[in-house]
Amino acid sequence: KSGELVNKRIFEDLIQYNTSQSIRKYNSALTNNDLNQDENWNIIYLKEVKIVVDKIENYCKYNEKITRIKDFFIIRNGLILINDNIFILKIGKELKIEKNEFFLKVNGNFTKLSETEQSRLKKVYKSKSITLYGYNREDNEGYILYFNKNEFKNQSPSKRNKSLEQKYPTLAKYLRQYEMKLREILINAKENPEDLFYPRRGSFIRRLEEGGKEKLVDLEPFYDNSPKIFFKYISSKNIFGYSTDPYYATSDTYFLWPLANKEIDYLFVIAYLNSKLVSFLYKAK
């Protein structure tokens, strides 16, 4: 009841335009002409906050221009698959591992995979695995079945698929079980149904090289061996993960891929992105 009385007094003060320690007032403008150029009309974005933000942004200037993440990185989401339930193999369901040997369930029976076929299985994560400066290695979703179009370059889609089936027979048979469903999804999305073996997005990016020439960059070597910074698509805090080990993730994760000819100090960048300074900017902006 005491809380109700306090609230009642506050509302009475508001109605009567009385001063109160519980009320902070802001002068609003009736027209655009009444606005001060150096102030903001957004009452959430206080003038004191703007002063601090401006000071921080002044330290981020190069050649009189504020440098931003997009000046060093291409920001793209992770792998978009035709169907997660088909391409992500769960241990104990579609996949068995015994003494470092992999067995895949095809037409109701488990078949041993060759070492060549095992190389196409990549441990995959969702964004919930991301932690400050890293990720929870145990919080994986299983193994993604990952084929690379660059492996069979300069071939028509149908010939490329035949080459794939010859090299990876068991993996191809597994996907052929769901061929009708995969083709239907691709057709409905107005995409080539012959691409049923491959990720839809996230395996390549287009990057501008010197001279303004655009290049299609294969991301598999980056996922496997390069330094990577990644973050959740939806998050209330600045939590950025980092890895130099193989790290594949689904589309709810975003990656920072370096622009061409940019020297990146990854340890500095990850420390900055996870800092209280960025947390302040994240909330202020």
Query: Reading side by side through the largest sheet, how are the strands ordered?
Result: 3-17-14-15
Overall morphology? elongated
Mean pLDDT: 88
The proportion of strand residues reads: 15-25%
Number of strands: 17
Total count of helical runs of at least 4 residues: 10
**Distance, first to last CA:** 38 Å
Biggest sheet character: 4 strands, antiparallel
Taking all Cα atoms into account, the compactness measure Rg is 26 Å
Classification by helices and strands:
alpha+beta
Low-confidence stretches: none
Give the topology string: H per helix, E per strand: HHEEEHEEEEHEEEEHHHEEHEEEEHH
| Percent helix range | 25-40%
Protein name: site-specific DNA-methyltransferase (adenine-specific)
GO molecular function: DNA binding; site-specific DNA-methyltransferase (adenine-specific) activity
Enzyme class: transferase
Keywords: DNA-binding, Methyltransferase, Restriction system, Transferase
Overview of this protein structure:
The chain is α+β, with helices and mostly antiparallel strands and 285 residues long. Among the domains are: 2-67, no CATH class; 84-124 and 139-195, no CATH class. Helices cover 31% and strands 24% of the residues. It contains ten helices and 17 strands. It has a four-stranded antiparallel sheet, with helices on one face. A four-stranded mixed sheet has the order 4-11-8-16. The longest helix has 15 residues, at 2-16. The protein is elongated and about 80 Å long. The two termini are 38 Å apart. Its EC number is 2.1.1.72. Residues 213-283 form the TaqI-like C-terminal specificity domain. It catalyses: a 2'-deoxyadenosine in DNA + S-adenosyl-L-methionine = an N(6)-methyl-2'-deoxyadenosine in DNA + S-adenosyl-L-homocysteine + H(+).
